[in-house]
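Q&A log
Question type: sequence-to-structure
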Amino acid sequence: MPLRITSPQTKVVFVVLGYIAALTVAVVGALLLNVSAGLFAYGAVVLVLVLVGARTFRGEAEDVHASRPMWRMTTKPVAGFVIAALFFLQALTTAASAADAPHYAPLYVLSIVFSLALSAAYLNSSLRLRRIV
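Response status: OK
Response body:
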């Protein structure tokens, strides 16, 4: 049987520990190598967290044995809209802070595009889910 996370508490622990790991990897990468390495390491960990979460998290009404369509990121549309908004807010705050460090402009652009892409994935999922749920 594939791994499925159904408990809300376990989902919260997964997300919190995942972001702690992402921030730790970012700081270690930045200190040992450089800021760019830290940013890329952070992005890689976040991407893995999103992909693993989208594939393993299941809601109460979902079949734990069936696989999800690749476009489906959440159980219900509202959750996807909230997560999409959070990634969009992350992109906005990153853009706002970019003015303070113009020498890192390419990294800021990459971070903004990454956050917007994740936001778009969750938004797409929720829009499609609204039609079928």
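Response note: The longest helix spans residues 105-132.
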